[in-house]
Amino acid sequence: MTLTEKSGHLAWCALVALALARQNGDVLSPAQENLFLTRWLATELKQRRFSRDVTPDIEWLLKQGRQMGVSAKLASKLSYLWRSCTGELSEQNDLFRLTYALETAKDMHWNYRLLSDREWLGRNAVVPSPGVNGIYLSRANLDVAFDDSGQQINPLTARLTGNVAGVMKVFNRCGWQAEPDSGTSLPHQYSLMAGQGVPGKGD
Q1: Distance in angstroms (rounded) separating the CA atoms of residues 174 and 121
Q2: What is the pLDDT of residues 83-132, one digit of tens each?
């Protein structure tokens, strides 16, 4: 079983447990849902029922549930994890998968901004703060990066700040790759490429 399949299996088990708890009437509100999933994840971590490979996934979800409470949207995150790991997401076009990645990053409290030409380059350009989790895209660049069917046809440049390794995992789950842009002296600049490492394709 690959790491992707193991992560998908973990998410599936959590969602099934939640569905059964709802059916039994044990979970009736978002607060109860968060409490149930947090306890479930804590139990799985303690009893080590799953492969050690998915421990980072469990720890991250558990931390989110404990720190953010209801706003952690654990069920949504688990659903996303399951869909991305089972290959369902890989059947969507490039633009859809990019949008999905950006929405997920926003759920994780990343700042996402679409910048005008003036904000992107020149003396009025927005200067990203290295310590803030941020994703910045050029509106003009984004407009010409995809064809009518949502497939990438031109390079897409992004500026990424903060915990870049963390957001790269989100992009990878959605079949996108972020590589440091070696052709520029600008800091925090990356090239986004579709079709790399799509879950379900060669995993």
Answers
A1: 28
A2: 877 777 778 889 988 988 888 888 778 899 999 999 998 888 888 888 99
C-alpha closest to that of 198 among 184, 181, 167, 177? 177
DSSP state letters, 14-43: HHHHHHHHHHTTS--SHHHHHHHHHHHHHH
**Pair 81, 57: CB distance under 8 Å:** yes
Question: With a threshold of 0.85, does the pTM exceed it?
Answer: no
SS3 content of the chain, % helix, strand, coil (to 5): 55, 15, 35
How many CB atoms sit inside 10 A of residue 23's CB?
A: 9
Written as one letter, the residue type at 158 is A
- DSSP class of residue 158 equals E
Q: pLDDT tens, 55-75?
A: 988 998 999 999 988 988 899
Q: Could you state, in order of their start, the residue ranges of all structural domains in the chain?
A: 3-85, 92-194
Mode of pairing for the β-strands spanning 111-115 and 176-180: unpaired
Contacts (Cβ under 8 Å, ≥6 apart) of 33: 18, 27, 70, 74, 75
- Structural element, H or E, at residue 138: strand 134-138
Residues 6+ apart with CB under 8 A from 86: 8, 199, 200
Following DSSP, what letter does each residue of 56-87 receive, concatenated? HHHHHHHHHHHHHGGGG-HHHHHHHHHHHHTT
Quote the tokens at residue 139. 């509106």
Residues listed for the chain = 203
